[in-house]
Design goal:
single chain; 92 residues; mainly alpha; two-stranded antiparallel ribbon; 43% helix; globular; binds heme C
């Protein structure tokens, strides 16, 4: 079967967003979303996520290593309370 490129890409992006969302809902939105928005960061929806925090962008497109959001997770600094831990498998 031949899958038109544009279509394949789009569904991949959608799946990524779904995955990220479920990680954030589980680990992050109790402090970053809804009532509580630590550092002015709202991770409960994509547009808010792309708006970033009080300090600016938390995501750098195509550069996870340069994105504060990912470096804080991999450094083990977020979630701040260590109540839950994001596993590498979840991020990849
Ligand atoms: C227990 C509450 C709590 C949880 C859970 C939490 N955070 Fe945070 N987060 C904070 C607080 C408080 C700050 C601001 C102070 C600081 O920088 O330590 C912060 C700051 C940040 C910042 C830096 C914002 C900036 O520009 O200064 C990012 C990015 C971030 N959090 C992402 C996340 C992600 C992603 C998760 C889930 C994996 C998460 N946080 C879970 C409390 C939390």
């Amino acid at each position: 079967m031949v899958v038109p490129c544009g279509l394949a890409k789009e569904s991949h992006a959608l799946r990524f967003e779904e995955q990220i969302k479920s990680i954030f809902l589980r680990h992050c939105v109790r402090c970053h979303g809804g009532q509580t928005q630590e550092a002015d960061l709202d991770l409960s929806n994509m547009p808010a996520l792309l708006r970033g925090s009080a300090d600016g962008d938390v995501l750098v497109a195509g550069q996870p290593d340069a994105s504060p959001l990912f470096s804080l997770i991999t450094a083990g600094e977020m979630p701040a309370d260590r109540e839950t831990e994001v596993t590498v498998a979840e991020v990849e």
